[in-house]
Amino acid sequence: MTEILRTTDPVRLSWLIALLADAGIDAVVLDTHTSVLEGSIGAIPRRLVVAEEDAAQALRVLKEAGEA
After folding, report:
1. Which residues pair with 6 in a beta bridge?
2. Is the dihedral of CA 44, 45, 46, 52 positive or negative?
3. pLDDT tens, residue by residue, 13-43
4. What phi, psi does 25 have (nearest 5°)?
5. Which residues contact 45 (CB under 8 A, 6 or more apart)?
6. Burial class (CB in 10 A: 0-12, 13-18, 19+), 59
7. Would the pTM of this model clear 0.90, i.e. be above it?
8. Which CATH superfamily is 2-64 part of?
9. What is the pLDDT of residue 38?
10. Distance CA 32, CA 55 (A)
11. CA 51, CA 57: separation in Å to the nearest integer?
12. Res 35: pLDDT
């Protein structure tokens, strides 16, 4: 798995996952549980990861959407 980005914004994560899914790329969000447990201070960002073979295409999709 390759990390694409980190963010504390769950709405942005949802948008990025939908964007990648539309391009046929499966994405996984890591650190969700830890982020929720720490509360609303936003100290622990969630990581968006994709398979290594999809990383280049995923970055291209996000860059074209102005999200990278």
Report:
1. 47
2. negative
3. 999 999 999 999 999 999 877 655 666 666 7
4. -110, 125
5. 6, 7, 8, 31, 35
6. middle
7. no
8. UreE, C-terminal domain (3.30.70.790)
9. 62
10. 21
11. 10
12. 55
Identify the pLDDT of residue 31: 84
- In the Cβ-directed half-sphere of 26, how many Cα atoms lie within 13 Å? 4
Domain-wise residue ranges, the chain = 2-64
Looking at this protein, which amino acid is placed at residue 13? L
Share of the chain above pLDDT 70, in %: 85
Amino acid letter at 9? D
For residue 11, what is the enclosing H or E element?
A: helix 10-22
